[in-house]
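user: Here is a favour to ask of a fellow structure person. I have my own habits and do not want them to colour yours. Could you put it straight underneath, so I can go through it closely?

assistant:
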Amino acid sequence: MKGKYCVLLMVLVFALGCSHAPQTSLQTVSHVDLSRYMGKWYEIARLPNRFQKGCLRSTAEYALKDGVVSVINRCDLEDGSMKEAVGIAQVVDAQTNAKLKVSFLPDWLRWTGFGWGNYWIIDLDDNYEYVVVSEPEQKYLWILSRSQTIKPQKYDEILANIKAQGFDISALIIDKR
């Protein structure tokens, strides 16, 4: 039971931390085919954040149903336990599908409009093999892949792209796989 409260607190902190006014300098990709985007993604690297403290390995799974994306984030901890956060995402830019809002709050709290975080797709492989996700204030960043690893040359290209968008790549935490 204690773990469930920890996950809820983690999700609440994330949602509140992502609800600031957006900056205009962060660029998203021109288009996302949501049906191709669905499925399991492995975290390769991330910027430090409070809600993933202690995570060694993380995954995100997305499924599209009736225009809403279900989200299941899982994190393996050092002690062998797992944290899980279940939420939903909704497209806020239907022209590109690259800007979404995500909430991990319980259904009964989502109607308030409070606790929704930005989920912007800022880099996406043509074959949907990797993606980079952030939010307008650039406080958060995730590099995700369909496989548990990325080829070093491709990873270097991704790092160059995110560095060009103003991110501090020296702060990245690499997943321990």
User: Anything to note?
Assistant: Residues 1-24 have pLDDT under 50 and may be disordered. Residues 2-17 form the longest helix (16 residues). The two ends are 28 Å apart (CA to CA). Helices lie at 2-17, 34-37, 107-110, 152-164.
